[in-house]
Design a protein that fits this description.
mainly alpha
């Protein structure tokens, strides 16, 4: 994560106007080099750790939306993160949905992104108990191919 986005999020949630000093484009200067898309997803990941799933999913989705089409590999990683968060909530259907784990795997294979393939494949054992849930069987078949 950018520096320590978790501390930034906690400070922001406690109403600190500018917890780290100078801001650029709404971000502290120490992480001005990070894209808005990456910062949104990293902040979403931090909020998942804090248990604020609603805001976390919103930020992760926002990061996906902000990401240029040319950055397919990071998009696949972002999708894998979102799928993992749905599995944490014991919601296998959205985790396996076309817009999450399945899309992540397809995108990773198409763009040659081994990290993303690994992230998605690492989720497979967590899908096993939900083999009958909508989308899960298709995801498991896809990974076996």
């Amino acid at each position: 994560m950018c520096g320590n986005v978790l501390h930034f999020e906690v400070a922001g949630s406690q109403g600190a106007a500018d917890p780290f000093g100078v801001r650029r484009a709404g971000r502290p200067a120490w992480c001005a080099w990070v894209s808005q898309a990456d910062l949104a997803v990293d902040s979403g990941q931090a909020l998942l750790v804090l248990g604020d799933t609603g805001r976390a999913h919103h930020l992760i989705s926002e990061g996906e939306r902000l990401l240029p089409e040319s950055r397919g590999k990071p998009r696949g990683v972002f999708l894998a993160y979102r799928a993992a968060s749905y599995l944490d909530l014991k919601e296998p259907e959205p985790a396996a949905a076309t817009a999450t784990a399945t899309q992540s795997l397809l995108l990773a294979r198409r763009t040659g992104a081994p990290r993303c393939v690994r992230l998605t494949e690492d989720l497979l054992p967590r899908f096993q108990p939900y083999a009958r849930a909508q989308g899960v069987a298709e995801l498991l078949r896809l990974t076996a191919a």
